[in-house]
Write a structure and sequence with these properties.
homodimer; about 220 residues; alpha/beta; Nucleoside Triphosphate Pyrophosphohydrolase; seven-stranded mixed sheet; 11 strands
C-alpha cells in the first residue's frame, strides 16, 4: 500500500491514523471475579425493565481496543510475518458469549468518564485510579434497542419514540505497552477483524459490525 | 430521545450532527444517458485488470447522501408522520443492481475533487461546474478488494500486499433544497436505512453496511 494514501482522507477529523502495537507488548494477569449480574437472558431483560422504569433510557459505553496479532488461517509455518492483522480485545463470559469491555453509565456520568471507570473495572488492577490511564478517542458507532427483547440496530428504528437501550462504541487508543488485569470469571481474547467481520452468529450484531466502524482508519503498525 | 444526549459524543470531531431535509424539498429531472462501461461482470473484471496494469491500485470515491423519507412497513393509513426515517440516495442500473453516486479517481486527482466531479456527472445538469455545488464531509468508511474477483472487505485482508481496488465512502451534506438531474439510463431511489441494513443480498456488502457507518451521527430532521 502506498504511504502517500494515508494523508488523503478528505475533509475529515485529521486523526484517522491509529497506532497499533503487537500483542507481545502487553502483559496479562488476573484478579478476583466480578459477580455476573444476570444468570439468564430472562434475568437480563427483567433487569433492563427495572432500570428503565427507574432511570429511563439505559446508555452503555463500550471500548474498542486494538492490538496487532498474528492471524494464521493456514499453518504454513513459513510466512508468519505476512499474516499480521489488527485484532480486537473481547471479553468472553463463561466460555460462551463475547462482549466489549464497558458497561452502563451511572446517572449524570459522562460517556468518557463512565467508560474509563468501566475499563478500569474490567481490565486494570485498581479500578479506583482512572484519571490518565485510558485514552478514549471518538465515538465510532451507536446502536439502539427499541424494545427490551429486540435486537439492537445501528439506527433508531422507525416509529421508536422511547428507545430502551443505547450502546455507544468508542475507539480506545492503547499505549506502547501496559498490563491488563482481568477478573477470573472472564477471559480476555484478541480476535482478528477478519474473524469477527460479518459473523453475527458467533459475536452478535454489535461486535460483528466493528470492522465497518473501523474501516475509515489507517492502522500504523509499530513493531519496535 | 432526550436532546441532551446529542452533545455528549466524547472526544470526537464535534460535527456528528447531520441536518436532513424531507425528500419533498428536492426536485428530480433527467438528462442524456451515460454509456455503461461494462456489459457484464466479466467485462468489469477485465477493465479492472487493464486499469491496474496501467495505473496500479484503483481508488473509487462514493457519496452517501441522506434525505428524510417516509417508511411505511405496514400501510396503516394513520400515523404516517411517525415513520419518518433517514433514506440513502442510490442509483439503480438496468432495474437490477444498486450503486452509490461516485466513481473512479483520475490519476493525481484528490478524493474530494474526484467525488465532486463524479457527483456532478451523475446528479447535476452541468458536470463541468463543480466548485461549490457539493459539500463533501468526512470519509466514513473504506473497503478493499485484494483480488479482482473477490468480495470487498472493510479492512485490508491479511496477507494482502497489493490490493487491487479501494472504495472510499464520504458523507455528503445536502442543502435545504436542490435539483437532481439523473442520466436516463439510471434511476435515483431513496431507500430507508432500515431496508438496506444487513441486506447484502439485495444491496451488496458496501451499501448494506452504510447504517453501521452512519450510526455515530445524530440526524437533525428539519421540516420547515
Amino acid at each position: 500500500m502506498e504511504d502517500g494514501e494515508h494523508n488523503d482522507n478528505g475533509g475529515g477529523s485529521g486523526h484517522n491514523v491509529v497506532d497499533i502495537y503487537p500483542l507481545s507488548r502487553y502483559y496479562f494477569s488476573s484478579k478476583d471475579a466480578i459477580p455476573e449480574k444476570d444468570d439468564s437472558l430472562a434475568d437480563r431483560i427483567q433487569r433492563l425493565k427495572a432500570s428503565y422504569a427507574a432511570h429511563g433510557l439505559r446508555t452503555c459505553v463500550e471500548g474498542v481496543l486494538l492490538v496487532l496479532g498474528v492471524h494464521l488461517p493456514f499453518l504454513w509455518g513459513l510466512m508468519v510475518e505476512l499474516f499480521q492483522h489488527p485484532h480486537v480485545l473481547l471479553l468472553q463470559v463463561k466460555n460462551s458469549f463475547f462482549k466489549l469491555p464497558g458497561g452502563r453509565l451511572r446517572p449524570g456520568e459522562s460517556d468518557i468518564e463512565g467508560l474509563k471507570r468501566k475499563l478500569s473495572r474490567k481490565l486494570s488492577l485498581d479500578e479506583s485510579c482512572v484519571n490518565d490511564e485510558w485514552q478514549v478517542d471518538e465515538c465510532i458507532g451507536i446502536w439502539w434497542r427499541s424494545e427490551f427483547e429486540t435486537l439492537p440496530f445501528p439506527y433508531l428504528p422507525p416509529n421508536t419514540h422511547r428507545p430502551k437501550e443505547c450502546a455507544k462504541l468508542f475507539l480506545v487508543r492503547l499505549p506502547r505497552n501496559r498490563q491488563f488485569v482481568v477478573p477470573k470469571n472472564l477471559k480476555l481474547l484478541a480476535v482478528p477483524l477478519c474473524q469477527i467481520h460479518d459473523n453475527s452468529k458467533t459475536y452478535g450484531p454489535i461486535i460483528s459490525g466493528i470492522p465497518h466502524l473501523l474501516s475509515k482508519f489507517y492502522f500504523n503498525t509499530i513493531h519496535d
